[in-house]
Amino acid sequence: MKQISNFVILVLLFLSILETGCSNSSTSTKKQDATRFSKNQEDLMGKGWYIPKSAPVGELSSKYGVKSKFGQQDNYFDIEIGDGCDVAIKIVNQTNDQCIRYVFIPANTTANIQMIPQGQYYLKLAYGKDWMEYDNGDGTIDGKFTSNVSYDKSVDVFDFGKKNSSSVINYVLQINIKESLLQNNFQTVSISESEFRK
């Protein structure tokens, strides 16, 4: 009788270990499902694009192809991003179409871009999720969103004054996407990805 009860205990112990092992394997399947990639991402990965360990935040360094320019005065943009998407913004000089700053702002955050040089600027905006990057092999990196992507250019021109003026100028911009509808406090028009990348 004692042998039978020991046998039953061993069988029950074995079954509980087996059940625990199976439930752990279903958890690992869920983790695997969470790392599935979209067809677009898989295509880009096949071309050398990768998902960085963490998406950039704030002003992007010169390795993203933009040499930042700074002014002497504290002219600035306060940019508030609502929920719905992350946003990459290029601040472009209206006179020569040269990008002077490139900024990545995650959803539900605010960025303060300071020391904007005097002059007139428009914005190029990329909205989306799932940031990916490509190493060009020359020390520069391309980055872009791979899902829910759209590109815009501001119709509004932001005037930060003339050279040698002493006024400090700022703009508060609000960008939000709700139910696939863009809600900004400034006017934009749609542009292509290639136009954004120029």
Written overview of the protein:
This protein is an alpha+beta fold. It folds into two domains: 1-36; 46-197, Sandwich (Immunoglobulin-like), CATH 2.60.40. The protein is built from three helices and eleven strands, in the order ααβββββββββββα. The strands form two sheets. Strands 1, 3, 4, 6, 7, 8 and 11 form a seven-stranded antiparallel sheet that branches. β9 and β10 (181-184) form a beta hairpin. The longest helix is centred in the N-terminal third of the chain and has 33 residues, at 2-34. The termini are far apart. It comes from Bacteroides faecis. Keywords: Signal.
Topology:
Elements: H1 2-34, H2 39-46, E1 58-59, E2 76-81, E3 86-93, E4 99-105, E5 110-113, E6 120-135, E7 141-154, E8 158-159, E9 170-178, E10 181-184, E11 188-190, H3 193-197
Parallel strand pairs: 2-9
Antiparallel strand pairs: 1-4, 2-5, 3-4, 3-6, 6-7, 6-8, 7-11, 9-10
